[in-house]
């Protein structure tokens, strides 16, 4: 996974913050839980979580060093929140968390089974998890369009050995994926979302930060042209300039009875 621009993300993350905040509001907490936020980004939602568990604590982990730098640099926030660099597929927490959450991050993890095994290992026997991410659907995603653009003769050589940096699972496959990790789905829903960035330029700015896995392979001068090509091809799919459409899966999980 590329090292995302944490400082840039702060300015374009309205979509991610709105989706995560809406989902977070539906999570009941007693106020004393120990919480792990996987893929915490710049820590905005992590700090919201910490405010809801004043007698507990929240640890945010992210695989992007610049995201963790941005989380540490943010002013204010509860004293019961902390951040550290960490990849969900290699984290080694024991069963110490009452709640594990992940918002808009797990679709950037190709090794889904390993990710969920690590999440399961971090949960107390009575713990639970809430995950939210972009899933597969009939409409072509902006990430799929980006992969199409990598085959353009202008850039094909730079992407010759690129492994797809994301995964959009079929919602029907989630139970099997998490089941192999010792988890079970207790609630699941899929929503067809859209977000209007207001202009083509604002959507392109959002893509510029989010497409690091692609643009990091190009000379800096070619990055904007690559993003423009993706935005141009995606616009007919979304329906109008500046509009982003995606399917979002939200699931609540718990450790399977008898799992260790």
Name given to the CATH architecture of the domain at 6-136 and 164-195 and 246-255:
3-Layer(aba) Sandwich
CATH homologous superfamily annotation of the domain at 6-136 and 164-195 and 246-255: Vaccinia Virus protein VP39
Query: Between the first and last Cα atoms, what is the distance in angstroms?
Result: 29 Å
Number of strands: 7
- The number of helices is 10
Q: SSE order in H/E notation? A: HHEHEHEEHEHHEHHHE
The low-pLDDT segments are 4-12
> Structural class given helices, strands, pairing?
alpha/beta
Our Rg estimate from Cα atoms comes to 18 Å
Strand content: 15-25%
Molecular structure report:
The protein has 260 residues and is of the alpha/beta class. It has a domain of 173 residues: Vaccinia Virus protein VP39 (Rossmann fold). The chain has 10 helices and 7 strands. A 7-stranded mixed β-sheet has the order 3-2-1-4-5-7-6, sandwiched between helices. The longest helix has 16 residues.
